[in-house]
Amino acid sequence: MAKKSAKSKGYRRQTAKKPYLSKRDIAILCGIVAVLAVAAFFLFRYDDGALKVKDGAVVTEGDNWLIANGSNMRGGARYYKLGEIGEIDGYSRQKGALTSDGNIPEYTFTPAGEDAGDVRLTVTCGHGSAEAMAKYAHSLMENTEGITASEVQNGQLGGRDARWYGYNTDLTAARATPEDAHEDVAEAAGDADAAEANRYSRAVAGYIDASHECCVIFRAVSRGDTEADCLDQDALQAMVEKAVGAVTVDDGK
User: Which pTM does this prediction carry?
Assistant: First the structure.
């Protein structure tokens, strides 16, 4: 009697299935996962120097800090200390805040003496290079009736590389309704307190680079009932140079 074959007995030849990933593929995948884990750890633990914010307010250790919002760097509001500002001989200093962001301080210096006139010097910070911020503000003034601005200059102010320009504001020149016109011109000139009827002002704005892709902004403004009541540009530029000399700035270099 003939023996039955393995096939006739119901046996089937088994073919070993290959794994979806080879040992080499698994090793590469594990390496990628490890790198991503380390990157995620440092992403959430990385300290880029941003100041702490508590209850919506920036936590500082001094009342003379220069602070900017470098939000474009990582998204969301992130505030950085760019340096400090000292006193200026012959001026009183007051600390306020920008109306657009109360966490960014604005320092106002006013000359001592009753005969100083309506003159003030302000120092604050913005996000953007000195060149970019100067060009942007200058472009707003060029397109605002009532403001005449000189060209943006590139050179030294107070011993530091800077951008600056001068401008005149005539609040009587706007053709819209007087109140709205004065507010628009004053806002473009960065001089919100000057939104009054029949007022003139002359100013010099200066910008120097700081760390975190930010800059420090200086503005000297002289106001009066007539153009003759305002200080000339040389005097205002000298005021800006004094302010530049009063700050210590981390320029990231």
Answer: 0.75
